[in-house]
Each structure stands twice: as structure tokens, then as C-alpha cells.
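Below is one protein, fold included:
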Amino acid sequence: MNKKLFHSLILVSALLAIAVDFFEYKTLFFFFKPLTTALIILLVFCFRYGGGNSYSNSILMGLFFCLAGDVFLLSSDFFVYGLGSFLIGHLLFLKAFVKERGWYFPLEVVIPLILFGGVLLWLSYPNLERLFIPVVLYMSVIILMSWQGIALNRHSSQKAFQSIGLAVTLFLLSDALIALDKFYFSFSFSGLLVLSTYWTAIFLLAESTTLKG
């Protein structure tokens, strides 16, 4: 299948998932949500450059854990399992970034990320209760992953990594929106914002495995 046609298929699935979520067709949402992530995973399988390397393998495994997280988060009863799945996914993305170019420590990147995480934790804290430690652990990992993703973007001229900074920023934003909606206040169109930023993020990560140089 042509790559652009595959991109269109992912977009259609994502738009359908967002639409059925907005109109509260739960059965259809339970189908289209994991389907969209599965199609993004399939993008890596079908089009990754050179048939696979350490970077693409780590991204691929991270996406599988995102899919598991998607399924767990279909029910609020499995929120912690979803959180754990995404945490492992972020660790695998972090592994991909660090193994590609090593560790970078730009303070001008990490300080805003820490401040952002601190404000988010402060807003969410009153309603976290027993989830406080898991949420702090998760937030620490995604901030570290975002830091190294942005650093890789800044320190590499390779085409494959040009959108990594945007991808991790959108992932962080998506998770922040989930936290605010669940632990601070529920707001209109949260599903649209969360899903659109999340799928754009993992699409960009998947797409990075298909690009040469």
C-alpha cells in the first residue's frame, strides 16, 4: 500500500474515533480507539527504514505499550494499569532517543518542563490520594523522555528526528490534559484535545522510523 494512502487511513480512523467519542457511541469508540493506534503500529511494520534497527525496534515496542494503555484506559477501573503501560512506553521511547545520540542535558529545556510538571502536580494534588506516587513517577518519566526527545531534535540534523521535539511535546500535553480533566476539572472537548494531540504524537514517532537520514 502507498504510504500516503496509509496515512489517510490512519487519519480517517482517528477522526471516526474522535467523532464517536464525542457523540458517546461507546461500542464504536472501543473499536476505533485501539484500531487507530494499531494502524500507527502497522505503519512502522510496513514502512520502517532499512527493515528495522535499534531505534525503530524501541519505538515499535513503546507503541505496543501505548496500545495496551489505550485498551486499559477504556475503563476507569484499569487506570493504574493504563498508567503503567504508558510509563513503560515512555521508557522505551527514552531508550530509543538516548541510544541514538547519547544523553544531552540542556537546562533551558528541562527547567520549563519541570515547572510545567510542578504546576500540573500542584493542580492535581488534592484529588490524587493513593495515586500520588504513581502519578509523580509517571510525570518524572515523561518529563525525562520529553527532555531527551527535544534534546535529540535540537542536536541532530537528520530528517528522521526533525519532528521528535514536537512529538514528545504533544505527548506531554495530551497527558497533561488527561490529568487536568481527571484530577482538576472536567472540561468540554477534552476527548477531542486529548486524542488529537496523542495520536499526532505517536504518529510522528512512528513516522520517524520510516525516514532516511
